[in-house]
Design brief:
This protein is 34% helix and 16% strand. The chain is built from 13 helices and eleven strands. The radius of gyration is 19 Å and the shape is globular. It has one domain: TIM Barrel (Alpha-Beta Barrel), CATH 3.20.20. By secondary structure, it is of the alpha/beta class. Bound molecules: iron/sulfur cluster (SF4). The site of iron/sulfur cluster has 10 residues, from loops.
Amino acid sequence: MRLLPIEETHARRILSPVSGFIAAAGFTHSLTPARNCTYGCTYCYVPTMRIQAGLKPEDWRHWGEYTTYKVNAPELLCKELRPDQLIYCSPLTDPYQPAEMNQEIMPLILEQVYIHPPKLFVIQTRSPNILRDTRLLQAVAEHTDLRISVSITTDDDRIRKIFEPRCESIPGRLRTIEELRAAGLNVYATVAPILPCEPAALARMVVEATSNPIIGDPLHIRQLKPRGATTRDAAFKILDHYEQPQWAEVEFQQRLLEVLDHEIRALGGEFAWGPQGFSCLTQPRSSSALASSPTRAGKRSTPTTRRPAKRSPR
Ligand code: SF4
């Protein structure tokens, strides 16, 4: 992949107290090593948050076209880490976006986490670049509760290519989960956002990938969330272009969640969505967080993908 421009800045702080969705999931802080993310996914909610996400106007106007690294992140972390923190890294960029392979800031961050361990450190990524740091991750996992959450957005790599063309393939992400687990690391599969998919196939894929509860979240839509972060227009345009608007409709999404829940449970897995789903990342494995999981599936028909049409994305 062509490496997009990497800029550098000095941040005032690196750990941010959380609110909203992430706080509701049980985290106390987030860690974002870079502003902007060159994966540039069409659905990414981050640029819709604008200054709330600490972005500059050029970030939301040119989302995905460059990234700006907070080069003093390790020094700041050294001062800000505390043993009672539950940290999510990161809600605002992929910490293993392609630029990380040049910038190499994550090993320095992990070293600080190793030296000053918080209560919990969660890495959210979709990138096999994380495998570079496997030995360091193993060391960190001996000092803190380290969990790695890998985004699996659909079972169909053709769909993935349309919505997130710069990201790793779905088979590549599954291999990443396998290698991380083989290294003894605690790995979750996060179906977020849920892109057009065959729910039964997606359920099988994620249940086979990890023994942890499966976390889900549909595309964010304004009808359900009048303010704050939401899905970028680019993703809605793709759905319209392929005549698949139902994937951003309230009733269809609710039914989709119920069907995925049913399929995952039929395979012996557990599933929860929204903040409750993400709370699986903060709670002990034996927790009853899922006992009050939203409605189980009924017997209505299964949402399925009508395959992408003849037209290619605009
Ligand atoms: S990887 Fe995550 S942060 Fe980066 S563009 Fe995609 S959704 Fe946004």
